[in-house]
Specification:
single chain; 314 residues; alpha/beta; seven-stranded parallel beta sheet; two-stranded antiparallel sheet; 43% helix; globular
């Protein structure tokens, strides 16, 4: 199972649209995919369930908020019990070997960071380190349960911040994918994000390596798969000059690598995202430019994870 965090400090970069469609394309290629919505905006969840469905079926006892809530995440609610299978998208996947499941978010997740922070600390240094590792490693431990071994890929849609919930996603992930627009504000924080991730890895591993009795925690080493530029403007089949310049600048100077694939801006495909419960790449007939770009991105993404055709291990 590959676990990938999808994140950027900047909102409005197509993060959720990318996650939903990349997960759907992977499932259409026969992979078993779990999407985990950790963004309080809940947009990934609403890409597969209507707001009424969410209120009626998920809000009270089937969201990730219930799992993080309590004395320690996961002690009162099993993460596996929160998995739901969206009917509409999986009906489209009927003739494939793939499946797409989801763990829903909740608008109240925004309060969880403060609750988790309040649980850090202890009466002794040893207790503080133990709580730090248990809290930061809680999602990693939960995903290592045998009930998740059926999945080939887990995509975690992170909130645009670096709070404790996001940190649990990074600790749980092997890789990080960064959607970004090709403009100044969207690329400004890339190196800052890389630095914060490096600091988290160093701190977590320091506690693991120097705290006796932490055999249930192992060092982490998440790597950046890279930046994927989304919502690019294309003219005459080429990215426009100003955006191409930003992409090249990041490619040459950023600590974060850049994927070759880009996804163009297309309100026609993504403007009504979520209304049908089926991501655009599974609704679009034929092979237009957007479909070809997503196929290319999926090839690059899944190939880097050794989940491309012929690489999937049973």
């Amino acid at each position: 199972m590959r676990v990938v965090a999808v994140m950027n400090y900047k909102g409005g970069v197509g993060k959720t649209t990318l996650t939903a469609n990349l997960g759907a394309v992977a499932a259409s290629r026969g992979l078993r995919v779990l999407l985990l919505d950790l963004d309080p905006q809940t947009n990934l969840t609403f890409s597969f369930f209507s707001i009424d469905d969410w209120h009626d079926r998920l809000k009270d006892n089937r969201t990730i908020r219930q799992w993080y809530h309590g004395e320690m995440p996961g002690r009162e609610v099993s993460l596996a019990d929160l998995v739901v299978t969206p009917e509409r998208v999986n009906k489209v996947l009927t003739n494939t070997d793939g499946r797409l499941d989801l763990i829903s978010s909740h608008l109240g997740l925004i309060e969880i960071d403060l609750q988790l922070a309040a649980r850090l600390g202890g009466t002794t240094l040893a207790e503080s380190k133990r709580k730090y590792l248990d809290l930061h490693g809680c999602l990693r431990s939960a995903l290592e349960d045998s009930s998740f071994s059926q999945y080939d890929l887990v995509l975690i849609d992170c909130a645009p911040n670096f709070g404790l919930v996001t940190k649990t996603a990074i600790v749980a992930s092997e890789h990080i994918l960064v959607p970004a627009k090709a403009d100044y504000l969207s690329t400004l924080g890339l190196d800052y994000l890389a630095g914060n991730c490096a600091d988290l890895v160093e701190e977590f591993n320091d506690y693991v390596n120097h705290k006796p009795g932490t055999a249930d925690h192992r060092p982490i080493d998440p790597s950046f798969l890279g930046v994927v530029f989304t919502m690019v403007q294309v003219y005459a089949q080429e990215v426009i000059f100003t955006q191409h310049g930003y992409i090249q600048e990041v490619r040459l100077n950023s600590r974060v690598p850049v994927l070759q694939s880009t996804i163009r801006n297309s309100p026609r495909h993504f403007g009504n995202s979520g209304e049908s419960g089926v991501p655009a790449m599974l609704r679009t007939t034929g092979k237009d430019e957007i479909v070809r770009e997503f196929d290319k991105l999926a090839d690059e993404f899944l190939g880097a994870l050794a989940l491309a055709s012929g690489d999937r291990s049973e």
